[in-house]
C-alpha cells in the first residue's frame, strides 16, 4: 500500500476521448477493505471499470454474474477461499483471463511447483500506485 495519500495530480488519469463503456474491467478480490478501496480508487482514476469482492467465494460469484471481466487482481490469502484456488476455478472457465496476485509475503515459493507453466504475476504489498497501475496495464497487454 502506498505510504502517501493518493494525489490525482500525479497521475495521467483517464483519456477523455475514451468511451467509458469500452474501458477494461478489473475484478479486485481482497479481504482488506483499505487495500481494496485504494486499488479501486486508483484504477477508476486511471480509466478502468472496477468490480469488487471481499474474498475468493465472492470473487467467483462476481465473475459468474458479470458480463465482462478483463483481469482479476486478487490477494493470495483470504478467508473462505484464497486467491490461488479462486484463480484455478476461474481458469477452468476462462483460461485466457489474466490474473495478478497480491501478497504481503515476498516469498513467492507458493508458485514454485508450476513446472513448465508461465510464472504468475505477483504484486508484493505494500506496493506503490505506480507499481499497481503499471502491473495492471502490462498484464492486460498481450505478451505483457
Structural notes for this entry:
Mean pLDDT is 83; it is low at 1-17. The chain contains four helices and five strands. The chain has 144 residues and is of the alpha/beta class. The protein is globular, with a radius of gyration of 15 Å. A five-stranded parallel β-sheet has the order 2-1-3-4-5, with helices on both faces. Helix 2 (56-65) packs parallel to helix 3 (83-93). It has a single domain, classed as 3-Layer(aba) Sandwich (Rossmann fold), CATH 3.40.50.2300.
SSE blueprint and pairings:
Elements: E1 25-29, H1 33-45, E2 49-53, H2 56-65, E3 71-75, H3 83-93, E4 99-103, E5 121-124, H4 129-140
Parallel strand pairs: 1-2, 1-3, 3-4, 4-5
Amino acid at each position: 500500500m502506498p505510504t502517501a495519500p493518493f494525489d490525482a495530480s500525479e497521475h495521467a488519469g483517464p483519456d477523455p476521448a475514451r468511451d467509458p463503456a469500452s474501458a477494461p474491467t478489473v475484478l479486485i478480490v481482497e479481504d482488506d477493505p483499505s487495500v481494496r478501496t485504494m486499488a479501486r480508487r486508483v484504477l477508476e482514476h486511471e480509466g478502468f471499470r472496477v468490480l469488487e469482492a471481499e474474498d475468493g467465494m465472492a470473487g467467483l460469484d462476481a465473475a459468474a454474474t458479470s458480463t465482462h471481466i478483463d483481469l482479476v487482481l486478487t490477494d493470495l490469502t483470504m478467508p473462505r477461499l484464497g486467491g490461488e484456488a479462486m484463480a484455478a476455478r476461474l481458469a477452468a472457465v476462462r483460461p485466457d483471463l489474466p490474473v495478478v496476485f497480491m501478497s504481503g509475503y515476498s516469498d513467492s515459493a507458493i508458485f514454485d511447483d508450476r513446472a513448465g507453466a508461465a510464472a504468475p504475476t505477483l504484486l508484493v504489498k505494500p506496493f506503490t500506485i505506480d507499481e499497481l497501475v503499471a502491473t495492471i496495464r502490462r498484464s492486460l497487454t498481450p505478451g505483457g
